Amino acid sequence: MDTEATAEDTYRIWKKNAPYLYDVMISRNLLWPSLTVEWFPEKTVQGDYTSQRILFGTSTSGNEEATAKDSTVIIAEVQVPRDDLPGDLKFDESRNEIGGYGVVPARINTKIEILHKGDVNRARVMPQDHFFIATKTDHVENGECDVFVFNYSKHPSRPKDGDVCKPDILLKGHTQEGNGLAWNIFNKGEIISSGKDEKICRWVVPPGASEVKPLSVYSHHEATINDVAWHRQHQAYFGSVGDDSLLMFWDSRDAPTKPVHAVCGHTEGINCLSFNPFNEWLILTGGGDNIVGLWDLRNLKEPLYKFKYHQDGVYNVQWAPFYETIFASGGPDGTVAVWDVGKIETDESKKSSESPSELVFVHGGHVGVVEDFSWNPTEEWMLTSVGSAGEVGDNTLHVWQMAETIYTEATP
Prior knowledge:
Layout: H1 3-21, E1 22-29, E2 37-46, E3 49-57, E4 72-81, E5 91-92, E6 97-98, E7 107-115, E8 120-125, E9 132-137, E10 147-151, E11 169-171, E12 181-183, E13 190-194, E14 200-204, E15 211-212, E16 216-218, E17 225-230, E18 237-242, E19 246-251, E20 261-264, E21 270-275, E22 282-287, E23 291-296, E24 305-308, E25 316-319, E26 326-330, E27 336-340, E28 359-363, E29 369-375, E30 382-388, E31 396-402, H2 404-410
Parallel strand pairs: 11-15
Antiparallel strand pairs: 1-31, 2-3, 3-4, 4-7, 5-6, 8-9, 9-10, 10-11, 12-13, 13-14, 14-16, 17-18, 18-19, 19-20, 21-22, 22-23, 23-24, 25-26, 26-27, 27-28, 29-30, 30-31
């Protein structure tokens, strides 16, 4: 059986079982794939709905039908029926969406589109001021690949004919594209970025600036730096990972000549990392070797544990914002796996050959690469994820929450 038939059959099985697996499952077909997604933190109650915004963008590179107007940063509103309303999860054939409780449908509605130069490789909201959005692009101009910062309150909700991309601030320093991008949750306006130019740039964005040069440039990696992340409890500390298989830790108060620590973390390139928001010592890494590594910063000789499920590398890994032991991982195999560190079985004789004891749930609704996902910061166990066009195509955005009967068993 060919790959396309297999993927389609898997999707049909997943769609049939979705009402039993989820309390919320909303799927939105996108005109263009997205490589990035993130929740805004604010949630409001509007009648029968809770309403919350998400941030994503378009990827149109290599498509002859795309025009400059198709490259946009998008802010959409997710409307989910309140969980105290009766109803059942249903599949809407006309919209190719799953979601809705009785007569009150769940919806994802585009609210704002901002023109963007090139693909939106990554987009992140400033924690201290949610009007400010930073983006990574694949657009190189005059040997520079700037990080764009938009204040979306100063842009129309839809671009007009003749409009062009006008970032409010340009962060200078990079010469090639990349994906690593992270705002500091402690220091307003402080942001780090990484890319194929093997550099990490750090800026502090001052009010009213139009162009900002980096305060520091870190160049110790010897290959593409795939991801960067700030420590969640120490404001000067951040980490980086790259195709050189190195995991590095930096102190922004030091000179950017060498990292505080550097360790070879995987047998292939490392794609992502995440600091635990509750435990200052724990960090996760995901690599091209299909492994999610759990590390203790006090002893970096080897991982504390290796999580094995994904079949084609790990692109994303994120700790949950509500429990110390819960995290998720995603990648090219089209799945997002949810894990519970507290359920690790150390007794080899009790381990299952079919499924790891620490694997809580697998979201299998994408048939292409899971490019990015984001935990909802205000609604426990809810995530959003985006899939890009794989061999069978998957330009979808999902908002989902596994059934309470599943996550109740995993709650510490």
